[in-house]
Write a structure and sequence with these properties.
Helix content is about 55%, strand content about 5%. With about 325 residues, it is mainly alpha-helical. A three-stranded parallel sheet has the order 1-2-3. Strands 4-5 form a two-stranded parallel sheet. The two termini are about 35 Å apart.
Length: about 325
């Protein structure tokens, strides 16, 4: 049975946190066995946020190391950076010519920026077309997204249909959203959804000191230690659910309900459990980070493999739009 193709792109715009891991990244590792998986470092998308050479260089390398440390295997998957395949921006321009401004004004990122009264860059306004190019270049069957990101794939589908209709040929396959199953909404250290924009994260590769500082800052109620409390209303317990074994979690829940555990002890147990989870990832990441030549080779090889696929698709595109003469 032929494997289907899957593509996911992540912007190198900051350190991943445990919310990213439980929300999506851990599933990427499993998907590379089920699909012909393509994982893209979306560095041209990142230019909307980072406009500093050294910072972007480091962010690209860091994200690649993160992927490898989590278990993405360049022998099973294609891991590449967007800027190594010029066909992405070429196809995005072609899509621009068949796309109207009112259509792009419906995009979530544009609306969010407009509400915040930001001076909106053309890159922010136009990013759905670059994203459509990212997806459609590779005859992708599935794009893993959260429920709130379905619009990205819908824009790619709309664009594929419109292109195929205008030029009278089925050049592009229509991708499907792969809604990530059992996506955990990970609470941040303030109880809200964990997000870099809220500044409430625990880094995925955090040191023990970083874990301790983050956990100890989690706000708690003022009830005395021996007073029973509802664990479901406790910000610390919500994180215990991710890092404690089921039998340990059962005991913790009972102690909360009986008033047998204080906030300090609960936080200390959580710190120990988070560090036990992160330490092996952190150690593997440190090992990979000491071999930058290997990291660069992964990107170079992935770029060549991705480019071979993209060039083939663009030959068909240039033919059908009428610019290919010889």
């Amino acid at each position: 049975m032929t494997k289907k193709t899957l593509l996911s792109g992540v912007k190198p715009t900051g350190r991943p946190h445990i919310g990213n891991y439980f929300g999506a990244m851990r599933q990427f590792v499993d998907m590379q066995d089920e699909y012909n998986a393509i994982y893209m470092i979306a560095d041209y998308h990142a230019l909307n946020f980072i406009q500093n050479k050294e910072e972007l260089n480091q962010a690209i390398i860091d994200l690649t190391i993160d992927y490898l440390a989590l278990g993405l295997d360049p022998k099973k998957s294609i891991i590449f950076k967007q800027s190594d395949v010029m066909e992405h921006t070429e196809l995005a321009w072609i899509f621009d010519t068949i796309t109207t401004m009112p259509y792009l004004e419906r995009a979530h990122a544009y609306k969010d920026a407009e509400v915040k009264n930001k001076e909106i860059s053309v890159g922010t306004f136009n990013y759905p077309m670059l994203m459509a190019a990212d997806i459609l270049l590779y005859d992708v069957d599935a794009v893993p997204v959260g429920q709130d990101q379905k619009q990205h794939v819908e824009y790619a589908r709309d664009t594929a249909q419109k292109f195929n209709f205008i030029f009278g040929k089925e050049v592009f396959k229509l991708p499907e959203s792969k809604i990530l199953g059992e996506v955990a909404v990970v609470p941040g250290i303030d109880g809200q959804k964990m997000s870099k924009s809220y500044g409430n994260t625990i880094p995925l590769f955090a040191t023990l000191d970083e874990i301790t500082k983050a956990v100890m800052s989690i706000p708690t109620d003022s009830k005395p230690m021996n007073e029973p409390r509802n664990p479901e209303e406790d910000n610390v317990f919500k994180l215990h659910k991710l890092f404690s074994k089921s039998e340990d979690l059962f005991v913790l829940r009972e102690r909360y309900e009986k008033g047998e555990i204080g906030h300090k002890e609960s936080k200390e147990i959580l710190i120990k459990n988070i560090d036990a989870f992160i330490a092996p990832l952190r150690e593997k990441r440190d090992q990979i980070a000491h071999d930058i030549d290997y990291v660069l080779d992964v990107l170079k090889d992935g770029g060549k493999r991705a480019k071979a696929k993209a060039e083939k698709k663009m030959e068909a595109v240039r033919e059908v739009i009428g610019v290919k003469l010889y």
